[in-house]
Design a protein that fits this description.
single chain; mainly alpha; 3-stranded mixed sheet; transmembrane; Sodium-dependent phosphate transport protein 1, chloroplastic; membrane; transmembrane helix; MFS_dom
Length: about 375
């Protein structure tokens, strides 16, 4: 309340009824502080604050300031402006209001998705490069088609072993460690492939099987990570992006392998593709976490969004295999997935050999 309203409501006094009194000369003067008001009164006519002059009336407010201790915390501040309120809340949450670069403001969950996408891209690049490199390798080492088939299938010996084990490991130690282990493992095996091929077939079989062990944990570890990082409303598009990395890796591997072989020889395919895994692993160590709860740099609003739409579950300790295998939909998925993989990997593995063998008779006919 202002000093004027205070005086008018609490210390109102009427001027004397006099013929020489002019209302326009009735002035109100006040002096006050917003920190506190202490007025003295009531005041009778002619005393205190109200006194008569010859032709005018003046009301003087004797205002005394009170000591006021300002609160140190920002909680005592009340903003009527909603923008100011939101800024205050962001400061309380610990957000840095200084302009950040766009890569710092990019959602962390989608960084995890892109890293999984790139891991699957490398996975299929390292998988299909043997389909191209096996042609000059078979010519150099004089391998028969049967031997070529054993070399190609040795990858899946290890790949079969770690599918289920990878999911159990991811639930136990976290998806970050398992996927990182898988990428490093198969990258090292890829680099060692030319060395093993020169040492002998048994070494090559073992290295290719080791490569399958590394790639076998990628799928379950990725599903474990995305189930914790991606909200349910965004899970379909994130999985679609990650799985598209596999097919992009097949296209990239089949496209660049012939160029590298033609310019630098067939070992260059394994050395170049395998070395990319070390670059990915360096970024993975600094940016990825198994769960949003483990990331200290995750913004509070994004962590709230992720955790509010996910259900926390304990790791599975006992798997009801009998119950799972007794369900017809499970067997329908198994059969359909088997047929899909049969056709896909037959084409990826043997299609370059098929075209190479098909073009050889045509070249012989032209020479004749």
């Amino acid at each position: 309340m202002t000093a004027k309203a205070f005086l008018l409501f609490h210390y109102c006094c009427s001027p004397p009824k006099s013929s020489n009194f002019r209302r326009r000369s009735f002035n109100l003067h006040s002096s006050y502080y917003t920190t506190g008001i202490e007025c003295r009164g009531p005041f009778p006519y002619g005393k205190g604050l109200v006194r008569r002059n010859s032709n005018s009336w003046k009301v003087w407010a004797d205002v005394k300031s009170k000591p006021f201790k300002t609160a140190d915390s920002s909680e005592s501040l009340k903003f009527d402006n909603p923008i100011s309120d939101s800024i205050l809340r962001k400061k309380e949450d610990g957000d840095n209001l200084v302009g950040l670069p766009w890569w710092e403001e990019f959602p962390k969950r989608w960084i995890i998705v892109l890293l999984c996408f790139s891991a699957f891209l490398l996975c299929n690049m390292d998988r299909v490069n043997m389909s191209i490199a096996i042609l000059p390798m078979a010519s150099e080492f004089h391998w028969s088609p049967t031997t070529v088939g054993l070399i190609q299938s040795s990858f899946f010996w290890g790949y079969l072993l770690t599918q289920i084990a990878g999911g159990i490991w991811a639930d136990t130690v976290g998806g970050k460690a398992v996927l990182g282990f898988g990428v490093v493992w198969w990258s090292v095996a890829t680099v060692l492939t030319p060395i093993a091929a020169k040492l002998g077939l048994p070494f090559l079989f073992v290295v290719r099987a080791f490569m399958g062990i590394g790639e076998g944990v990628a799928m379950p570890a990725m599903n474990n990570i995305l189930s914790k990082w991606v909200p349910v409303s965004e899970r379909s598009r994130s999985l679609a992006l990650v799985y598209s990395g596999m097919y992009l890796g097949s296209v990239t591997g089949l496209a660049f392998s012939p160029l590298l072989i033609h310019k630098f020889g067939w070992p260059s395919v394994f050395f170049s593709f395998g070395s990319l895994g070390t670059v990915w692993f360096a970024v993975w160590l600094t940016k990825a976490y198994s769960s949003p709860l483990d990331d200290p740099r995750l913004r509070p609003e994004e962590k709230k969004l992720i955790l509010s739409s996910s259900v926390s579950k304990e790791p599975v300790k006992s798997i009801p295999w009998k119950l799972i295998l007794s369900k017809p939909p499970v067997w329908a998925l198994i059969v359909s997935h088997f047929c899909h993989n049969w056709g896909t990997f037959i084409l990826l593995t043997w299609m370059p050999t098929y075209y190479h063998q098909g073009s050889a008779p045509a070249q012989n006919v032209q020479q004749v």
